[in-house]
Each structure stands twice: as structure tokens, then as C-alpha cells.
Write a structure and sequence with these properties.
The complex is a heterodimer.
Chain A: H1 2-14, E1 17-18, H2 20-32, H3 46-53, E2 57-59, H4 71-76, H5 82-87, E3 88-97, E4 100-109, E5 113-121, E6 134-142, E7 149-155, E8 165-174, E9 183-196, E10 205-221, E11 228-230, E12 234-238, E13 247-256, E14 260-266, H6 289-292, E15 295-299, E16 307-309, E17 311-312, E18 326-327, E19 330-332, E20 341-348, E21 357-362, E22 365-368
Antiparallel strand pairs in A: 2-10, 3-4, 4-5, 5-8, 6-9, 7-8, 9-10, 11-13, 12-13, 13-14, 14-20, 15-21, 16-20, 17-18, 19-20, 21-22
Chain B: H1 2-25, H2 28-44, H3 52-72, H4 74-78, E1 90-91, H5 98-103, H6 107-118, H7 123-130, H8 134-152, H9 156-160
Helix pairs in contact in B: 1-2, 1-3, 1-6, 2-3, 6-8, 7-8
Classes of the chains: A mainly beta, B mainly alpha.
Chain lengths: 370, 161
Amino acid sequence: MQKEFERAYRDAMDGVRLTAESKRALTESLGKRVLERPRPPLKLGRAAAAAAALCLLTAAGGAAVMNATPVLRDRFFGGDSVGYGQSGGFVGKAVENNGWTLSITDCVGDDYYLYLGLELEAPEGTVLDAADYDFERSRVDFTDSSLYGSWAIRPLPDDDPTDNRLPMMWLLYSSQPGVNGATVRLAVSGLGHNWRYEAGRREQVYDADCPGTWDFGYVTVRCPDSIIRLEPDTPVNAILPGPGADRAAVVSEIQISPLALYVRLSGEELVLHHGTLRPQAGDAVPGACWDAQELAAYDTDGNPIEMSPGMEIGRWANQNISRSRRLGGGGCSGYNETDGYIWLVYGFNGLMDVSRVAEVVVNGTAIPIP
Amino acid sequence: MDEERAEYLVGQYADLLVRIGRTWLGDMDDAKDICQTVLIKLLEDPRAFPDRGQERAWVIRLAVNACKNWRKSAWFRRRAPLDEGLHLTVEEPEAGGLLEAVMALPRVYRQVIFLRYYEGYEVREIAALLGRSPALVSTHLNRGKEKLRKMLGGTEYAKRI
């Protein structure tokens, strides 16, 4: 009997097919397509790197192709690695402003975060030796309005502070997935250093280096996608503050990218898990529920994988300016009356080879990674 | 070379991708877009496999991931994968049959039924592909079949499940 069902189901499913004409049209359309193929981070010469870079980024504007080494790979993620190959690649796009050239050298990204490596090149003879270069304004406009979040730009350690080049990093974050491959308008204005507060002023002041705008226009950056996406539906306890406050939930989603581990706890008991009374001004702010969850991951050798909530932005040398070192880090359904979830985002300490993640432990429940 | 590969991919996998898209997303227009999206991915990643079975397994994994992204992200849904003017037509069995009943099942049930009874995967293979435990996959299979029996009532199909 079982076999009869299988046969009937197969026959019925076989009846779902594209017409021959549609297949011809599809073949023709695919054949004509100009491919944008991501490249692995091979050790290419400068000209070859620039050519490969165009495969990862397309832009509406007519900006120049630059020649630069990949800043993210060499200055932020510690050199070439399996994780870089799984999520990053050369870009190669440069714009000029008042004789200063700003280049996007490479990218590393997943569904929620996109790192861009930047190299700033000042006119010959200029020395970029300050520790806290930053732009007065920056602009990130996704064409897809469902993508929103925040971003940060940081200078990276400069191995030659006496020259006219400066490595920087731009991290874009969206609380909704789809950053990788999205089209976004990128622009920065007003470079300066020695950012500081002065008595009687609420805004920071700085010493100007270069006014004007570096506008990359609308660009589409596409990183390789090696993300492991799972829907384990494993029952766990969601930990909430207070005795007896834990709720039943399931791990409804796990994503593992070279950048981060993402875990979603879902369940009816998580609907309105903060209660229905929104805090009023002056109320004590309770600890974030996503910070209360206990998350761990182990590699194929059984060693714990180092990770922390959110994503590393980079260290500011000027510690007088108080700025967060991490971006994003989790969320929950809050006061949504129909949806109940807690969303955990843990950035790895460096780029992870996703094939080496063997187990994720959520609030004491181990979930093997196939 | 790209034209030859395009012809091979369409001939080998286009129908499979439409079937996966239809099963995972429940909508034929979305299924057509998934088909195009995954075919583009296959063109962009011309890796070699030791045999056709491993290649097919990889294509299925790509398609399942594409469907997950499709459900989660408006960005995936809004873009036109290929030419705006490309309109694909899909033949489907007549309404009122077994397939319609399977498509009316909750998504998780029809997914495991597709992988088990159409692709012939074992429960542990489905578990690995979907990132669920084998026990949960078995549960979904049994519940799916039970629901099908109820939906189909006293029809000939119901006796075969």
C-alpha cells in the first residue's frame, strides 16, 4: 500500500513541469546572463585583483577601479583563512574627492552583517599619523526599505603611520536578513581627526583633514554564501529573569556563518514574555532577555568556540570618546501580541570555518550540527 | 560553455527546482522565481561532483536554502532573478487529486513527504538536510500521512497512504 502511495505521489509530482517552450526561454536567458562570479581570495597581483573585484561589486555610478591589497583580510581578520574564503572576496572600487582617494578593497558578509575594507589615500606628501580619523557624516541607504539597522566606520591599525595611506573598516548591520547582495548607496563626508568634546558644546569638534564627499553611488556587494541554515525545532527552556520565569520554547532556527552564530528561540510561551506593561520613563531597565540565554558552540575537536554578543567594530585609539565596540547583538518579540521569540547574535572571535562547527548548546541543550 | 551548461542545468534541474519551490513556498510564481534564482547560483558555482547523485543532493540543498531565504527576506522576493520579460509556464496535474491534498498540508509535513517519497531520502538524510532531529522528521512524516488520510477521506488515495 505504501508503495502505491509513493508511486501515485511521484506520478503527480512528475506532472509539475515547465513547458518545453519555457525551458527553451529559460536556457536562452541563462545563457545570455552576464555572470557576477564571486572569487575565492587567491593571492593575485594588483591588476588581477582589481579585475576579480568587479565580479563582486556592481555600481550604477562610473567610479574608478583601484589597486590595493585587501584591507579586511590583512588588517582586520588576520590574513587569509578558510573563513575568509567562505565569506569574503576582493571588491575594487574607488572614488576621489579633493585629491583624496577612498577605495573599497574587499568585503566579508552574511545575511545580517557586511564588512567593507577601506583604504584612504591622501595626496602625495601627506602624512596620516593620527589614531582617530573619522568622517563627519556617512550615508547608508538600502534600496530595499525592509533592510535597516546601523553602521560604523573605524580606522584600523596602520603599519606605516608616516605614509599617506590609511586602512579603515566599514561595518553595515541590518536587523532583517538580506544585506549580502543588497544594493546600497554609500557615501562619506568631511574627514577629520582629534575628535573631542569642548566645554559648552554638545557636539564633538575635530581638526579637519579633507572636506567634501566621497560618494560611491549605488553599489551591490555580493559575498560568497557558505552559511549553514538549520531549523532544528529542538525544545529548550528560555531563561527569563526571576524565579520560575523560564518559558518553554524551541530552537526554531540556527544560522552559522564565518562571522557569527545566530539562534532563534520561538514559542507561544514567549509571546509577551516581558508582560504587557511597557516601561515608563524612570522605570528601571531590566536586563535584555537575549543576554540571559546561555549559548555555547564547540568545534569538531570538542573545543569551545570563542564568541561574544554582537559584532566587533574595532578599537578606537582615542579612549576619550566613548563609543560602542560592538554592533547588534540580539532582540526579541517584545510587546508583539502574536509573535514570541528571542533572537541571539554571537559574533565569532575572527572568521570561523563553518565546517568546523560541530555542536551548538542553547541553555544546556546540545544540538549537533550536521 | 555557459550556454552548454545552462542547457544542461535547465534540462536536469529546472523541473526539480520548481517542484521544490512549489512544495516549500506553496506558490507557483514564487516557485518559478526560486527555479531561476537557484539556476543562476548553479551557473555561478560550476563545481564538479564525483557522481550525479551528489550533484543532485547539492542542488536540493541550494534550493532548500533559497526557499528559506525567500520566506525570510523581502529583498529576495522583490528582485527579478532573470529578465523581467521572461514568463515561465508550468504544467500541473488537474485539481482535486493527491498532489493538491499534499500541498494543502502544513509546510513542514509536505517538505518531509517530498524528500521521503519523491526524492527517496532516508529519515536520517532528511534530518541532516533540514537540520532537524531524525525523531522529529519521523513525527512530521507520520503526522503528515495521518492528516492526508483524513483529508482524502474514503477515496482510493486514502487507502494507499
